[in-house]
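Please check this one:

***
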Amino acid sequence: MSKIDEKIRQLTGFDPFPWQRRLGNAMLSGDLPTALDIPTGLGKTSVMAIWLAACLVGAKLPRRLVYIVDRRVVVDQATRVAEELREKHRSLRLSTLRGQFADNGDWLSDTSGLAIVVGTVDMIGSRLLFSGYGV
């Protein structure tokens, strides 16, 4: 079992699916895909754990992972996954951007640390355009 597979298992409690293993290895080699087209139910949310695992074993990846989804309920579910990752790696920063949640700014507080930002398309998009809702 590779280092990335071991780290993914430590973070998630599960052996990675073949596509997750390929993504982890791609992250290690710096060959990031521009998009993932994965059917519902095959663990897309685990991209957060794969990214974190790759970072922890030395991959040269961005320090921020922005996880954008188009439904609030999926943002909430992805946030719970990210919170579980933070329990296993305490220095991980986490912010959720969706309607009725104020950005806690945690992802901005330490630019050298690893952070996951989870949000809806409109909330993340508004931040990218420097005119975030409620800002």
